[in-house]
Amino acid sequence: MKVLVTGGAGFIGSNFVIYMLNKYPSYQIINVDALTYAGNLENLTAVQDNPNYTFAKGDIADSAFVEGLFQDGIDVVVNFAAESHVDRSILDPQIFTKTNVLGTQVLLDAAKKHEVKKFVQVSTDEVYGSLGETGLFTETTPLAPNSPYSASKAGGDLIVRAYHETYGMNVNITRCSNNYGPYQFPEKLIPLMIANALNDKQLPVYGDGLNIRDWLYVEDHCSAIDLVMHDGVSGEVYNIGGNNERTNIQIVKTILEQLGKPESLITYVQDRLGHDRRYGIDAAKITNELGWKPKYHFESGIKATIAWYLDNKEWWQRIQSGAYQEYYNRQYASRLGN
Ligand SMILES: Cc1cn([C@H]2C[C@H](O)[C@@H](COP(=O)(O)OP(=O)(O)O[C@H]3O[C@H](CO)[C@@H](O)[C@H](O)[C@H]3O)O2)c(=O)[nH]c1=O
């Protein structure tokens, strides 16, 4: 089986590449990544010499490049490649549409032409918008994205759906809740708060800190995609969630407590524009129909994650010393009053 994984040098993608090579020693994994700021080949050091692993650098929105990838035959495409950070999408929205909508379509066109057996679109619960205090997102919740990021993911999803309806392509769309775990870029809530706390820097909590996210350990996300890739029913959407709803302030306090750092580092800052209040996933469909079961509860997942960031300080410190600093200042300087 030849699997084309796009975005395999990013956080979830690299965890998936490693997971698949370990679990299926006979599969060939072709990792395609544009190596933007969020992609890092160091994430894949453990598998770089594996004969079943190959890497190609390029952009999924580049048709000629993508066409070349399919020349030797591909059985399955798993599309992780995306611009994924909501705050960046508020600052610079256009690249989100290019990669997440056009990039998805370019991949679909090549997959259709080369009669790929399955196309898995890795998407997000953010396409459903925001929940009130009760209720959960199901696969039939209407799409109501609120940020340029989530709108671009919803756009990509709709094109995937259309290629199934129009051309009969065998597709699945997965929609996950907030992931966390090893190799997450330190611009997202959990790794940013761990890194700032370890550096005794302020922890910028948006608004009142009471927005709720439903946390999913990345390995559990990988096992869910593995199931969908093999057993997903053509044309179906599967929600994937950890059933671990927490307010942001609970997350931040947990991190501080586990690192033995003071709560005085918490700094409430100006809210994110259009900030979704609550996400919560109903994962009954993938659980009942495909037999998915997450291994991690939040308590074990956050321990493993903090331990990883403590063991891999060099990794995130190197990231933070580059262009990241410019982004951080742009995003936080006025919020933090610096
Ligand atoms: C970076 C940052 C975030 N936050 C808040 C905003 C959110 O309510 C919450 C989580 O923020 P983020 O880590 O940026 O994640 P969020 O916006 O929920 O989106 C994530 O989760 C989505 C799935 O729900 C994915 O589709 C996105 O790619 C991923 O980025 O923490 C803060 O309070 N302070 C911060 O500095």
From TrEMBL:
Its cofactor is NAD(+). One of its GO terms (molecular function) is dTDP-glucose 4,6-dehydratase activity. It catalyses: dTDP-alpha-D-glucose = dTDP-4-dehydro-6-deoxy-alpha-D-glucose + H2O. Its EC number is 4.2.1.46. Keywords: Lyase, NAD. Residues 4-304 form the NAD(P)-binding domain. CDD domains: dTDP_GD_SDR_e. GO terms for biological process: nucleotide-sugar metabolic process. Belongs to the NAD(P)-dependent epimerase/dehydratase family. dTDP-glucose dehydratase subfamily. NCBIfam families: dTDP_gluc_dehyt. PANTHER family: DTDP-D-GLUCOSE 4,6-DEHYDRATASE-RELATED. This is dTDP-glucose 4,6-dehydratase.
